[in-house]
Design the sequence.
């Protein structure tokens, strides 16, 4: 799968965001429709409840609507929007955790025992990912699911590059330790 | 000793870059550096293999596909709410300032009256529209509700969820069609003709694309295109 972040419509995004900053609701709707699929797919990996996915996306676009005029083109529009979604998702997922809702309860229950190796590997990886702290998992998923570069992840998470590297390092270490146990045979 | 320290330093730095080597979002200089290190480091080659499998597992599961229409309507309702109460944000974040409370109370009363007037207006409008022949499309549907179609609509179509905007536009350009509404809750787009090309010809062009899951002519247009 090609990296989803490689958006051929970068200029289109900038034009739309400028219109949003001027109060154009139609431009916001177009921006919403062009990002909804990417964000919904990404967020559905963290929570299986669509109402949560929708709430995070809609909260994100409320912020886009209210702060489009503050965008200074220091990053790409996509990086800015995904950064807002990242912070909104972190807050929402932490609140759910504090309320005692495991974000992936249904997904965990549905973990397959498909004997085909490929699906089994996906299950092991998903289970390993669920055990990671949120920041570490987001870092890995931003790189592997959305295809972001190190610098883009630093911008999205508003963190120094060194912090992103450290989160990625710890995520990989924990994943490496958990995968053989989940696989039962010591091999991925 | 110094050489070993340098090698360890290089090993650690290259190891940190492996995820971006895997997702192909690494600069040329760093990629060459990783390539050179991999030739001599079995540990990093093992790590690269593991990360490629993790990457493959994550990208093989693209997540769940959701249609945006209903969510967008709820966002629009929230934005309407913002427009209706421009001082809502100030109320939520700011403390009362002297002299503002009575003004706000006055505004609340005015707003309440406006809401009541609006409610009466909506009720009257609702009763009136019952008698209109060309009623607006409903904001909801049931399985027995006949779908309302825009007057320009000549074709209804559903596209594969993975279709990008660029692909969609290209398909529509080829079939000389444009979107007049949609997607609906069921993912159906209403399409209008962009030229004098016949509906059946546009349909034929649409159906040559794998991304088009379903396409049919709308009632009156289909009848006009295929006279008895």
Sequence:
């Amino acid at each position: 799968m090609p990296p989803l972040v490689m958006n051929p419509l970068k200029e289109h995004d900038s034009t739309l965001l400028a219109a949003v900053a001027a109060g154009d609701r139609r431009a916001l709707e177009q921006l919403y429709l062009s990002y909804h699929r990417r964000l919904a797919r990404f967020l559905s990996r963290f929570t299986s409840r669509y109402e949560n996915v929708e709430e995070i996306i809609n909260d994100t676009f409320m912020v886009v609507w209210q702060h489009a005029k503050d965008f200074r083109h220091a990053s790409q529009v996509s990086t800015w929007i995904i950064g807002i979604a990242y912070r909104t998702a972190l807050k929402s997922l932490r609140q759910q955790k504090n309320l005692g809702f495991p974000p992936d309860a249904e997904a965990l229950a549905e973990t397959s025992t498909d004997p085909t190796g490929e699906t089994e590997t996906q299950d092991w990886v998903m289970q390993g990912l669920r055990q990671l702290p949120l920041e570490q998992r987001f870092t890995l998923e931003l790189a592997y699911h959305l295809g972001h570069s190190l610098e883009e992840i630093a911008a999205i998470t508003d963190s120094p590059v060194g912090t992103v590297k450290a989160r990625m390092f710890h995520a990989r270490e924990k994943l490496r330790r958990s995968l053989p146990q989940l696989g039962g045979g010591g091999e991925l | 000793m110094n050489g070993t320290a340098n090698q360890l330093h290089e090993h650690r730095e290259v190891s940190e870059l492996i995820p971006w080597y895997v997702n192909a979002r690494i600069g040329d200089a760093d990629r060459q550096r990783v390539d050179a290190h991999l030739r001599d480091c079995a540990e990093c080659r093992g790590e690269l293999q593991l990360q490629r499998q993790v990457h493959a597992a994550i990208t093989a599961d693209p997540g769940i596909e959701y249609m945006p229409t209903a969510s967008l309507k709820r966002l629009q309702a929230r934005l309407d709410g913002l427009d209706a109460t421009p001082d809502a944000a100030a109320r939520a974040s700011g403390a009362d300032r002297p002299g503002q409370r009575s003004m706000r109370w006055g505004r609340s009363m005015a707003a309440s009256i406006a809401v009541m007037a609006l409610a009466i207006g909506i009720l009257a409008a609702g009763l009136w529209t019952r008698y209109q022949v060309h009623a607006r499309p409903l904001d909801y549907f049931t399985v027995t509700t006949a779908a309302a179609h825009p007057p320009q609509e000549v074709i209804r179509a559903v596209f594969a969820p993975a279709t990008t905007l660029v692909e969609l536009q290209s398909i529509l350009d080829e079939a000389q069609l444009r979107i007049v509404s949609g997607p609906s809750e069921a993912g159906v787009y209403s399409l209008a003709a962009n030229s004098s090309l016949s509906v059946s010809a546009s349909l034929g062009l649409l159906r040559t694309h794998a991304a088009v899951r379903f396409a049919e002519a709308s009632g009156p247009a289909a009848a006009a295109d295929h006279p008895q």
In short: Chain A has two domains: 7-108, 111-188. Chain A touches chain B through 52 residues (CB under 8 Å). The longest helix of chain A spans residues 161-183. The mean pLDDT of chain A is 85.
